[in-house]
Recover the amino acids of this structure.
């Protein structure tokens, strides 16, 4: 992705001059970011820099104070049915999985398709089983979330999001809550997705993933996008002092 | 103990307890419905609804039940002419009083149900509703399919306590002439003051027989249905 690309077309997701406050705290400062169809963008940055808020703003789990966010050229609706419809088109994977605790794995994946998309149960079941197989947890379909390992739960969460046929997938530190031996199984699913040209915004500090799957790394600090570059370039030759400091910290540990 | 056989034969104590059970069950169902609506209003994002829900709970919960029941009879029926039964029926007075009592009991206990459900909602982690919204479920569907099913399971114990309280509070219906258990007890005591303690004992045991299994059922349900996280 060169700079001219983002200038010549508006992306699938386009943030322009986005600002967000929590009370006095200015959490997103004039964010401009355009993400193309099929692009995988990794967002990286110190804790508290606004990465989660950025993700949540894109499907309007957090409203913004000013600026605009376009999805597929359309501004995000403010509330009600239209907003719900928009959210159905944006998949979200949370750090803490957030599987529906009272529903089986299969029901977790079919709830959206049946209650939001209006699909029949049999159609939704079939698709859900295929997706669960694809992420490698097909055998767990009848169990409840609490019976699964963290890595399995997160893969179910990915399947649940995919079942809505989203235009873009947001991942907010999807592996941060996982034991080390489970990180790979989740990242493999994500790399696989990226390979099938899913548009993805991934908040993660997993450099391996960024190098393998990302088109671009966006570095955030104090609510601002401080640097954007291709992964290899960003990790080997960061331009800003903030990025250099940050990378030296996560590399030496 | 002839008074015990009198309880069954002369006073038809079983019919009185049957009335207590009907009062309780009908009011419980209605209170659950009203209470759920009030709880939903309180957790809704609409400010006006929140205020109405909060006002309902705070006003109704802090009003004496006797006052609510008497108001249903004197205020709603005698003053405002609201009747809940067929006026031409020869059981009109009984039917109407019974239904007004159900109304009062429901409205009153709905405030406790609403509080129980709200405490249940608080046991549901925020991430659950967020995940539901993220797959595109609108507010009411998020409540219906994700938050409330878990909230009810988290509220089983307090809901059981409300049901037990409701069973006992149904005795207040006697003040507007409903012939439930305590009304019959009063008559028995008037006629047989010599065996006052036995009469009290019979009715106390009757209520324990009604409420004890409810308590045990709800305790076991709260364990069995608990959401594992
Ligand atoms: N709901 C909220 N209310 C108030 N402050 C918040 C809220 N969510 C996040 N913040 C604050 O906003 C800042 C950015 O948070 P976040 O987007 O979660 O950062 P990151 O994901 O990069 O760690 C932090 O200082 C955080 O404390
Ligand atoms: Mg975060």
């Amino acid at each position: 992705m060169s700079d001219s690309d983002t200038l010549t077309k508006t992306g699938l997701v386009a943030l322009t001059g986005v600002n967000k406050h929590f009370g006095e705290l200015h959490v997103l400062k004039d964010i401009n970011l355009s993400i193309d169809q099929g692009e995988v963008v990794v967002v990286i940055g110190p804790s508290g820099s606004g990465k989660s808020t950025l993700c949540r703003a894109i499907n309007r789990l957090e409203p913004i104070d000013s600026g605009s966010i376009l999805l597929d050229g359309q501004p995000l609706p403010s509330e009600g049915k239209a907003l719900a419809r928009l959210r159905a088109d944006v998949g979200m994977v949370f750090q803490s999985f957030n599987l529906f605790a009272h529903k089986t794995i299969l029901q977790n994946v079919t709830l959206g398709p049946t209650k939001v998309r209006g699909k029949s149960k049999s159609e939704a079941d079939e698709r859900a089983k295929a997706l669960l197989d694809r992420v490698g947890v097909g055998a767990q379909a009848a169990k409840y979330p609490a019976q699964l390992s963290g890595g399995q739960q997160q893969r179910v969460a990915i399947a649940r999001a995919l079942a809505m046929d989203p235009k873009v997938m947001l991942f907010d530190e999807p592996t941060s809550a996982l034991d080390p031996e489970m990180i790979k199984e989740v990242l493999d699913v994500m790399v696989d997705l990226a390979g099938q040209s899913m548009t993805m915004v991934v908040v993660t500090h997993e450099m391996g993933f960024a190098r393998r799957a990302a088109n671009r790394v966006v570095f955030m600090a104090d609510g601002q996008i401080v640097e954007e570059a291709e992964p290899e370039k960003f990790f080997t030759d960061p331009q800003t002092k903030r990025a250099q400091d940050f990378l030296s910290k996560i590399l030496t540990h | 103990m002839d008074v015990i056989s009198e309880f069954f034969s002369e006073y038809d104590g079983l019919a009185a307890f049957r009335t207590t059970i009907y009062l309780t069950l009908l009011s419980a169902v209605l209170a659950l419905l009203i209470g759920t609506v009030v709880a939903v209003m309180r957790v809704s994002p609409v400010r006006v609804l929140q205020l109405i829900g909060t006002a309902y709970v705070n006003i109704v919960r802090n009003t004496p039940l006797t006052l609510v029941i008497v108001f249903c009879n004197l205020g709603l029926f005698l003053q405002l002419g609201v009747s809940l039964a067929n006026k031409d029926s020869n059981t009109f007075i009984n039917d109407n009083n019974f239904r007004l009592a159900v109304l009062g009991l429901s409205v009153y206990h709905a405030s406790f149900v609403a509080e129980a459900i709200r405490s249940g909602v608080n046991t549901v982690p925020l991430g659950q509703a967020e995940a539901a919204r993220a797959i595109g479920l609108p507010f009411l569907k998020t409540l219906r399919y994700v938050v409330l099913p878990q909230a009810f399971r988290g509220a089983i114990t307090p809901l059981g306590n409300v049901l037990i309280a409701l069973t006992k509070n149904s005795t207040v219906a006697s003040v507007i002439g409903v012939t439930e258990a305590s009304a019959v007890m009063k008559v028995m005591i008037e006629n047989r003051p010599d065996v006052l303690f036995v009469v009290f004992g019979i009715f106390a045991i009757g209520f324990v027989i009604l409420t004890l299994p409810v308590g045990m059922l709800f305790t076991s349900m709260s364990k069995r249905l608990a959401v594992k996280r």
About this structure: Residues 185 and 199 of chain B are 7 Å apart (CA to CA).
